[in-house]
Amino acid sequence: MPSNYYVTPAAIKKVFICNKAITGPLVFISIFLFLLTASMQLSAQNNDPLHVSDTTRALFQAIRSGNDDLLQQQLAKGANANDSLDGYSALMAASLNGTVGQMRQLIARGAKVNYQTNRGITALWLAVPNVEKTSLLLQYGADVNHLISGYSVLAKVAAMPGTINEVRLLVNKGADISKNVPNQFFVYNAAASGDTAILAFFLRKGFLANDTIIIGDYPINAALAFRSCETLKMLVENGANVNVAPFNPLALAAVQGLTPLMNACINNDSASISYLLQQGANPNSKSPHGVTALMLLEQSDTDNTDMTAALIKYGALVGDQQPDGSDALFYARQKGNTPTVTLLEKNIKK
Fold first, then answer.
1. Exposed (0-12), middle (13-18) or buried (19+): which is 54, by Cβ within 10 Å?
2. Is the pLDDT of residue 141 over 50?
3. Average pLDDT of the chain?
4. Over pLDDT 90: what percentage of the chain?
5. Domain containing 320: what range?
6. pLDDT surpassing 90 at residue 34
7. Is 105 a domain residue?
8. Domain count of the fold of the chain
């Protein structure tokens, strides 16, 4: 009986979930954490009602209501268009939770378009991906190249599917794609979005499908982390290496050196597994821990006989073992006497 030192069915899931939390979404954390914080604080409206004036409270409640007339009434009563709550301006609140009409009212009364919180968040960062709100802010001088921790609003939008019009708008209004983001995050984020229009936009701008980001990961793995087979295909068609096995200094040891095919198998992503095999992915590559794609597939909760057969068809060695003696059949048996177990038993004897 193999030991549990290397990767057990439960452990691989826990390890990979941790790894994805550190590596895949890490790309977006620095971008979206600001938005999440802003949303939570603005939705809460005020943390200490005893220290918020009635005028400020009424102003932000009017914005949150989405009622243009109600906001107009508060401004007519003397509410300050540059008032703030928890460090967020009234215009920022309208950009996130309000209407375009409310934003126009505030700007007409002198609201500062480029006001920043102590974390550098601006109204533009909260307005995207709403094209109308974004256009309004840009019309009145919003800084399209403002960076937060080195990242531009364009890098944030690149990760959001369905935002190609927003991407084009930002670039047309001066977003500098040569300087706004370090280490290939445009392509990496676009790959994760699953939106081929966004990915194609950046590839046409000269970014490469096979470039790494700062932690050493590749866009192809970003696509696989979010089961984005269409962006996976576009990356491969533009030169992405289907057998790359990056070392990620932020990843846990058990998931170092995983190939795209291994990542697809962890996710039990049949479409991506099939495509990668057709494109020359090596089913017998091993991670530093001796794990193969077939072993990872058999650790899925759902039995996938079709993809097991596909891996075998493309030459996967059923009898390959980790240093502790565990193999694909060992993991498959954890789900009972499934059709996959029968298939593996048949092929392991060859």
1. exposed
2. yes
3. 87
4. 73
5. 1-23+251-350
6. no
7. no
8. 1
Q: Which residue has the higher pLDDT, 242 or 5?
A: 242
Mean predicted confidence (pLDDT) in 284-306: 95
Residues 6+ apart with CB under 8 A from 11: 4, 254
With respect to residue 132, please indicate whether it lies within any of the assigned structural domains: no
300, part of any domain: yes
Q: Which CATH number characterizes residue 345's domain?
A: 1.25.40.20
When pLDDT is cut at 50, 70 and 90, the band that residue 150 belongs to is confident
